[in-house]
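Structure tokens please, single chain.
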Amino acid sequence: MNESTPLKLAVVGAGPVGLALALHAANALPEAEITLFDARPADKDVAGDPRTLALSLGSVQLLERLGAWRADKAQPIAEVHVSQQAPSLAAAFTSRFGEPVLTIRASDEGVPLLGAVLSYGRVVAPLQEVWLAAVAREPGRLFSRFGASVAALKNVTGPAGVEVDAGIAERFDLAVVAEGGVFAAAAKQELVDGRRSPAIRHDYSQTAWVGVATFATSPAPDGANDVAYERFTRHGPAALLPLKDGRAGLVWCVDSADDPVRELSDAQRVAVLNTVFHPRTPRLAALSPLKAFPLGLLAERTLTDGRTVRIGNAAQTLHPVAGQGLNLGMRDAFELVRRLARERDVDAVLRKLEWQRAPDRWAMIAATDFLARSFTWTLPGAAAARGLGIAALQALGPVKSAIARQMMFGSR
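Here you go.
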């Protein structure tokens, strides 16, 4: 690509990150030719996909800019309540002084909300609707290739670019891979380019049980359902994410080899969860059928390889302990487009992207990996140390605020 030639950009994957990137690029790069590839047909209904997503405030703001935010479908998060189930070594201390708790409130941070919760379908469907409308307005510049599975990516030279093989090989200046999945599926994915560096892989030997929980009574006296609860237990973290309909998305992580959930009935699971969460948490009355997902870390050592760049779950599949995988991908997408809008030299953009995204990316990978591994430690006092860390963060206001900003907007 030279100064007078418009950028030809391929986006592989029409999930939240891929669609957001394609739309942002369409707006910020008005001369670029953008093609979006995805294996699923365009007429496949995605709106009903019930998987729960937690979006940070930064991700909400990006969707608002793209015209793809549906506030009436989302449940704002006004507070995050983090606590730890007391280990046996700390039981006497806890009975006298209470359990360690960390509370982060939007009002304390001067923002209207910390983030929001909504289903996968209610994120993807509006993004796809806005994208298809943009394609209809500019059919000579924006292209949709739904139902086209990308079989291979190949970097080429003279001039530099990348071939995208989706039945017919097409050449682009840059290809962005934005499709990924849960750990088990991503770990089995074959490498489409043999020159890629090996990924960092670690199986946490944990299982996430995911579903929807119904409260026995209203979550708060005024009926508000705007608190996200996270509880550290000896088996792993458990979280309740508030939903628009008054229920909560449940993520319950346990040791796969000593799974206390698999053989329980739904009623027994409700009873156990009511003993697991902090006493402040509203009591649960019922659970939807739960689905199990194996958990692990899969992270590429670099985002870029020639003229191919990976973002979102294609670059890193994280443990859900902090609920930041999607938000990290959204920030990847935003920064890539921002740099392409400022500079025409694609290779220079990719070099700068690599080091510019590194602090945010590796800080989040390290934090989630540390927390996930901490549940497997057998050293006496490890859980108590984690509890002391929670208590210390609650007491150190500036540090707590810095962590809140990191979760909302990433490293800046």
